[in-house]
Write a structure and sequence with these properties.
554 residues; alpha/beta; Alkaline Phosphatase, subunit A; 2,3-Bisphosphoglycerate-independent phosphoglycerate mutase, substrate-binding domain; eight-stranded mixed sheet; 16 helices; globular; binds 3-phosphoglyceric acid; binds cobalt (II) ion
C-alpha cells in the first residue's frame, strides 16, 4: 500500500477504552473432546462462558492453505499464525516457496546457489538443520532435493549436521528420518559423491535456541557441527540416536533433548568439521530458531560465546531470516514479502500499542506479527515488553510467565496510555510440546484464569477484547488411530502427541465498551486467522485497509 490513512468506521465508533488482543498460544478448539484434550479437560469457566455468548464466538481456520502453507495436511504454527494475524493477508509461506523453487529448479540458478557452488570442487558442502517432515521449520524432502541437486551439480563432499525433532513430529521418528537420509546418501556415494552425516543433537538443547533465550544451546551446536567437539562420539548417526535415547533405561531421552554428538571415522577423527572455504547451508526455512546460528556463522564481531575458531565459509540460509538485519546476506530462496501490516497502519495513524509476551513467544507477537520485521515502527507510539522465560524444560515449571504477562497486560489496560494492548500466553503451546498432559491441563486452566482477570479490567476501563489463538496444540495430547481417532496405546500407555494440531482456534469478542448490537457475521464459515486484522481495525473504530481479508463483524 502507498496510502496508510485509516478511515473512521461508518458505524462503529472508537471505544472509550483500549482494545485487548490476546493470543492463547496453542489453545485449539478441537472436535475430539476426550481425556487427552487438555483445553477440554481443564477447568476453564471464563472461556466456557465466552463460548456461550451468542454472536460473539466462532472458530477460525489456523492450518494449511488458510495460513499460506502448501496443503491442508499441514498443521499451523506460530510463525504463519502470527504472520496471518498481524498482516491480515494470505501469504505464501516459506515451506510453499521452497517447494516451488525446487519444483521449478530456480533454487539451483539463483544467486544463493551461485554463491555456494565454488566450494563444490575442493571443499565441503555442509547442510545444517532440523531433520523432520513436520513442515514447521524444515522438511526432509526439501533437504533430500537440495542434497541430490548439489551432487548432480558437482558437489564432491557433502556433510550433514542434523537436529532431531520429536516436537513437530512424533517422538522416536528421528531414527526413520536418519534411515531415509542414509538411503539418499548411499545413492550419492554410489555415484562417487562422498556424503555423510557428521554431527547432530536434539533441537531443544542443541543449536535451535530462539530469541536469545539461551546462547549456550547454540554454543553446543557450534562445537559439534563446526569444531567437531561433543560429549559423545559415534561411528554412525543411527547408533548415536539409539544410544542417546536410552530407550531401555529408567530415564529415556526424547528426540528433542538428545545430547550433541559427533560422527568419527575409522581413525576416530570427526568426519565433517567446518573449514575455511567450505560452503554451509542452513536448510530450515523458518527464521526464529536459526537466527542465532546464522549470526555465529556470519558475523565477524561476535561475543555471545567463544567460537574458538571462526571458519571463513560460503554461508547461505534457505531463506533470508531477518530482512532488517539482512541476515544472512546470502540465501537460496527469497522469503515471503509481507508489507502493509496492521502494526504499520496503527503506528502511521497515531495509535499507541503495548505488546508483551515472554521470551519464547516475544518475537511471535512482535517480529512475526509485524511481517517478519524487527523493532518498532514508531518508538514513540509502541512499547514492547519481553518477560524473560525460564530455561528449564517447560513442563517442570508450567506456569511459565503467564502471571507476569497477565499483570503487565492489566497494568497497560489501566494506564490509559494505549489504544491496543496485545499479549501472547506461551504456556499451552510450550508445555503442550513436552507431551506432558497433566502439566498442559494446568496451563489451560491458568491461562483461562488470566483471561478472566484481563477481561475484568477491560470492563473496568470500558474497553473491548478479541481473544484468539494461533494454532492448536494443547487440544490434543494423544497420537491417534487415523480412522477411529482412538488414542494409540503402546506398552499399556497412550502415546503422547507433542506437535501442533490441525484444529481450528476460538475467536471471542466482547467487553463493556462494545455496543450490544455488534456481532460476528455468520456468512464466512471458511474464515481463518487472516480475517482477524480487519476485525481488530473495526473494533478500534476504523475501516480496515482494502488489501486485507474481510472483517468478521456483521
Ligand atoms: C517450535 O519451534 O517450538 C515448534 O517447532 C513450533 O512451535 P511454534 O510454532 O508454536 O513456535
Ligand atoms: Co508450538
Amino acid at each position: 500500500p502507498t496510502d496508510f490513512t485509516l478511515k473512521p468506521h461508518p458505524t462503529i465508533s472508537k471505544g472509550e477504552g483500549p482494545l485487548l488482543v490476546c493470543v492463547l498460544d496453542g489453545f485449539g478448539e478441537n472436535k475430539i473432546k476426550d481425556d487427552y484434550n487438555a483445553v477440554h479437560v481443564a477447568e476453564t469457566p471464563c472461556t466456557d462462558a465466552l463460548r456461550a455468548v451468542p454472536g460473539r464466538f466462532r472458530t477460525l481456520k489456523a492450518h494449511g492453505t488458510a495460513v499460506g502453507l502448501p496443503s491442508d495436511d499441514d498443521m499451523g504454527n506460530s510463525e504463519v499464525g502470527h504472520n496471518a494475524l498481524g498482516a491480515g493477508q494470505l501469504i505464501d509461506q516459506g515451506a510453499a516457496l521452497v517447494d516451488k523453487a525446487l519444483a521449478s529448479g530456480s533454487i539451483f540458478s539463483g544467486e544463493g546457489w551461485q554463491y555456494v557452488s565454488p566450494a563444490f570442487g575442493a571443499n565441503t558442502l555442509h547442510f545444517i538443520g532440523l531433520l523432520s517432515d513436520g513442515g514447521v521449520h524444515s522438511r526432509t524432502d526439501q533437504l533430500h532435493g537440495c542434497v541430490r541437486g548439489a551432487a548432480e551439480r558437482g558437489a564432491k563432499r557433502i556433510r550433514l549436521h542434523i537436529l532431531t525433532d520429536g516436537r513437530d513430529v512424533p517422538d522416536g521418528s528421528s531414527l526413520k528420518f536418519v534411515e531415509e537420509l542414509e538411503g539418499v546418501l548411499a545413492e550419492l556415494q554410489a555415484k562417487g559423491c562422498d556424503a555423510k552425516i557428521a554431527s547432530g543433537g536434539g533441537r531443544m538443547g542443541v543449536t535451535m535456541d530462539r530469541y536469545e533465550a539461551d546462547w549456550n544451546i547454540v554454543k553446543k551446536g557450534w562445537e559439534a557441527h563446526v569444531l567437531g567437539e561433543a560429549p559423545h562420539y559415534f561411528k554412525d548417526a543411527h547408533t548415536a540416536i539409539k544410544t542417546l535415547r536410552k530407550d531401555d533405561s529408567e530415564k529415556p531421552v526424547s528426540d528433542q533433548w538428545l545430547d550433541p554428538f559427533v560422527i568419527v571415522g575409522e581413525d576416530n577423527a570427526p568426519v565433517g568439521t567446518v573449514q575455511d572455504g567450505d560452503a554451509v547451508v542452513i536448510f530450515n526455512f523458518r527464521a526464529d530458531r536459526v537466527i542465532e546460528l546464522s549470526k555465529a556463522l556470519e558475523y565477524a564481531e561476535f561475543d555471545k560465546f567463544d567460537r574458538k575458531r571462526w571458519p571463513q565459509t560460503r554461508f547461505v540460509g534457505m531463506m533470508q531470516y531477518d530482512g532488517d538485519l539482512k541476515l544472512p546476506t546470502n540465501y537460496l530462496v527469497p522469503p515471503p514479502a509481507i508489507s502493509g501490516t496492521s502494526g504499520e497502519f496503527l503506528a502511521k495513524n497515531g495509535q499507541r500499542t503495548f505488546v508483551c509476551s515472554e521470551t519464547q513467544k516475544f518475537g511471535h507477537v512482535t517480529f512475526f506479527w509485524n511481517g517478519n520485521r524487527s523493532g518498532y515502527f514508531d518508538e514513540e507510539l509502541e512499547t514492547y515488553v519481553e518477560i524473560p522465560s525460564d530455561t528449564v524444560p517447560f513442563n517442570e515449571a508450567p506456569d511459565m510467565k503467564a502471571r507476569e504477562i497477565c499483570e503487565a497486560g492489566k497494568a497497560a489496560l489501566r494506564s490509559g496510555k494505549y489504544d491496543q494492548v496485545r499479549i501472547n500466553f506461551a504456556n499451552p503451546d510450550m508445555v503442550g510440546h513436552t507431551g506432558d498432559l497433566a502439566a498442559t491441563v494446568h496451563c489451560c486452566a491458568l491461562v483461562d484464569q488470566c483471561v478472566k482477570e484481563l477481561l475484568e479490567v477491560v470492563d473496568e476501563v470500558k474497553g473491548r477484547f478479541l481473544v484468539t489463538a494461533d494454532h492448536g496444540n494443547a487440544d490434543d495430547m494423544a497420537q491417534r488411530d487415523k480412522k477411529t481417532k482412538a488414542p494409540l496405546v503402546q506398552e499399556g500407555k497412550v502415546v503422547s502427541l507433542t506437535s501442533h494440531t490441525l484444529a481450528p482456534v476460538p475467536l471471542f469478542i466482547g467487553g463493556a465498551g462494545l455496543p450490544a448490537d455488534i456481532k460476528l457475521r455468520d456468512d464466512l464459515p471458511e474464515a481463518g486467522l487472516g480475517n482477524v486484522a480487519a476485525t481488530v481495525f473495526n473494533l478500534m473504530g476504523f475501516e480496515a485497509p482494502s488489501h486485507m481479508q474481510p472483517t468478521l463483524l456483521a
